[in-house]
């Protein structure tokens, strides 16, 4: 092919020059960030908001490896160009584009099928997730307003803490914009399930890949309620094991925050969990059957407007929200504690948008 034609073909896929203007001439033509490799498969368009952060970077890397993704938009208020240039050199088929700062947010979101939000500050030792509310509520609100405007039909995965409040914030923003679809908004609680599977496998000497622990309620302290009576494969725990496991699962995040000693919270296991959940959402959107995962969603399972439980994912997002199933006395008591704390966190999120 004529070199000029080749350059023109490549250029057709490029970012506008104000994004990532990284060009190099290797003698055979121009290569720029944002080109689709030959053989790139049709797939879904995914945006990560907060893509240059501790979670965002490994999440971006893992999503670039996902064959269901055809276009990956990486948005952040800092360092998006460097992360995008780096990730874009991976020889997988997804096109990667970077977007830096508020002025490029709308472009980052336009046309997206799935938006994943890990933007926001993480905890330091001694803090609760709710201590992040003042900063992260505003970030999630701004991002949600842009989603309502630019990709109102996208599935949204909220990672930013406190999830028990940020999901109600996003819902309230969407309601105000007239775009709220409860099937499309999910708080990511997959890390609680990932931890529960790991810790149960350790105690029972099982392969964690074969363990499935439902974790319901929410994503903070006592609101994280593992249902050990429903573990698959069926396991019989002593009361001491139940108390050890429940405590460790509820405080898994704090365990990492303390080990990281002021440098942040879980990032790598979170990126793994986020990708596991995002992949489930994409398989659902593709029409795969029986995709069931736990998530914090708009719900009628309890009297609360939001609650984490198993959901079945489908072509429209959430096809079905499952109830908690039969609980034992210990779990019933845990549920009451969880609901009490959840009610306050949900209300805090909702009322912050109404102010
Ligand atoms: N749901 C969960 O299970 C779970 C697990 C771990 C962490 N988290 C939460 O995820 C969030 C991110 O954690 P992290 O370790 O990646 O933090 P981080 O500080 O390493 O990264 C956050 C990123 O967000 C970006 N950012 C800040 N404001 C933004 C805005 N307005 N728009 C776009 N990007 C913005 C920052 O520039 C940074 O790159 C925290 O709130 C943390 O508590 C949730
Ligand atoms: O604990 C945190 O602050 C981060 C996250 O929610 C986690 O569970 O690891």
Automatic annotation (TrEMBL):
Could you tell me what reaction this enzyme catalyses?
(S)-malate + NAD(+) = oxaloacetate + NADH + H(+)
Record-annotated residues binding substrate?
123, 129, 161, 195
What InterPro entries does the record tag this protein with?
L-lactate/malate_DH (IPR001557), Lactate/malate_DH_C (IPR022383), Lactate/malate_DH_N (IPR001236), Lactate_DH/Glyco_Ohase_4_C (IPR015955), Malate_DH_AS (IPR001252), Malate_DH_type1 (IPR010097), NAD(P)-bd_dom_sf (IPR036291)
- From which source organism is this entry? Arabis nemorensis
Q: Which residues does NAD(+) bind? A: 50-56, 76, 136, 159-161, 270
Give residue ranges for domain Lactate/malate dehydrogenase N-terminal: 45-187
Q: Cite the entry's keywords alphabetically.
A: Glyoxylate bypass, NAD, Oxidoreductase, Peroxisome, Tricarboxylic acid cycle
**Known EC number:** 1.1.1.37
Q: Does the keyword Oxidoreductase apply?
A: yes
Write the protein's name.
Malate dehydrogenase
Relate the assembly described in the record.
Homodimer.
- Residue ranges occupied by any Lactate/malate dehydrogenase C-terminal domain in the UniProt entry: 189-351
User: Can you provide one Gene Ontology molecular function annotated for this UniProt record?
Assistant: L-malate dehydrogenase (NAD+) activity
């Amino acid at each position: 092919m004529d070199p000029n034609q080749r350059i023109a073909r490549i250029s057709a896929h490029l970012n506008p020059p104000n994004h990532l203007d990284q060009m190099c001439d290797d003698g055979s033509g121009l290569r720029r960030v944002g080109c689709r490799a030959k053989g790139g498969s049709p797939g879904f368009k995914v945006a990560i908001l907060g893509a240059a952060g501790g979670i965002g970077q490994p999440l971006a890397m893992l999503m670039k490896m996902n064959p269901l993704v055809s276009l990956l938009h990486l948005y952040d208020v800092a360092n998006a160009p460097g992360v995008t240039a780096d990730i874009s050199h991976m020889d997988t088929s997804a096109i990667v584009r970077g977007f830096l700062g508020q002025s490029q947010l709308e472009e980052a979101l336009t046309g997206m099928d799935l938006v994943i939000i890990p933007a926001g500050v993480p905890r330091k030792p001694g803090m609760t997730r709710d201590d992040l509310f003042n900063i992260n509520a505003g970030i999630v609100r701004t991002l949600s307003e842009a989603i309502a405007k630019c990709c109102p039909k996208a599935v949204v995965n909220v990672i930013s803490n406190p999830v028990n409040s940020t999901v109600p914030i996003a819902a309230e923003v969407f309601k105000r914009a007239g775009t709220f679809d409860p099937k499309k908004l999910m708080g990511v609680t997959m890390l609680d399930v990932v931890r529960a599977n790991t810790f149960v496998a350790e105690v029972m000497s099982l392969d964690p890949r074969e363990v499935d622990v439902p974790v319901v309620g929410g994503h903070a302290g006592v609101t994280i309620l593992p249902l050990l009576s429903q573990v698959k494969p069926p396991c019989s725990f002593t009361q001491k094991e139940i108390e050890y496991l429940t405590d460790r699962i509820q405080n898994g995040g704090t365990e990492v925050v303390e080990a990281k000693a002021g440098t942040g919270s879980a990032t790598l296991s979170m990126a793994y969990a986020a990708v596991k959940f995002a992949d489930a959402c994409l398989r659902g959107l593709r029409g795969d059957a029986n995709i069931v995962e736990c998530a914090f969603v708009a719900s009628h399972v309890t009297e609360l407007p939001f609650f984490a439980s198993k959901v079945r994912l489908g072509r429209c997002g959430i096809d079905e929200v499952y109830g908690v199933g039969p609980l034992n006395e210990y779990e019933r008591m845990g549920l009451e504690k969880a609901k009490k704390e959840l009610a306050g966190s949900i209300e805090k999120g909702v009322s912050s948008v109404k102010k």
